[in-house]
# Entry
Amino acid sequence: MLNLILEDCKKQLSAALIHKKHPFRYLTLATIKKDGGPKLRTVVLREFNPENFEFAIYSDIRSSKIEELKLFPEAQFLFYDSSRLIQLIIDLDLKKFLTELDIYNLLPESSKKDYSSVLIPGSEIKSPDEVQHNIKKNNFVKIVFEAKEIEYLKLKRPNHIRSVYSVKDDWKGKFLAP
Ligand SMILES: Cc1cc2nc3c(=O)[nH]c(=O)nc-3n(C[C@H](O)[C@H](O)[C@H](O)COP(=O)(O)O)c2cc1C
# Structure
């Protein structure tokens, strides 16, 4: 059963790359701030490799998460499927930042805007209309993470199911008291 749960997680994470409405398409990314405090934000899952548990997201290289990850190269992902009542908490190490242009160049014009604002993300502005983009001067970055632990929780009657899988344990997994 432990293995079936992990296989289902992999299946759902892979499905989230294809289906725009999949609940795992958006995740909460946690990093550690310079002052040691936590920082959360929503991001889109862009890549997942079920063979080596690598994940990738896209971002603006000038955003705060980049500095935070350079300082503390680890993160957590939180996925939640509200219809199946499944929560996944994934501990990850930062693997690399990739600024190769081939991905950016293939993005539709509307998506290019997400990585080409003239102002640094988080800069104070007087009005949302002040924002300008220069899609020829992008700040695109692909952030690649490698999972080291996956915790699964499914709420169900009569018993909730909680299990944890770790790279140290060769992803064999064990059940935990919910
Ligand atoms: C629905 C939604 C999807 C988002 N997707 C991304 C994303 O894929 N990458 C990203 O960098 N920011 C994304 N954001 C914006 C982040 O939540 C965050 O505000 C921004 O990246 C700045 O974060 P930082 O200053 O902590 O680095 C998304 C926000 C929302 C509401």
User: Anything to note?
Assistant: The first helix runs from residue 2 to 18. Residues 26, 39, 41-44, 57-59, 63-65, 121-122 surround flavin mononucleotide (CB under 6 Å). Residues 32 and 72 are 6 Å apart (CA to CA).
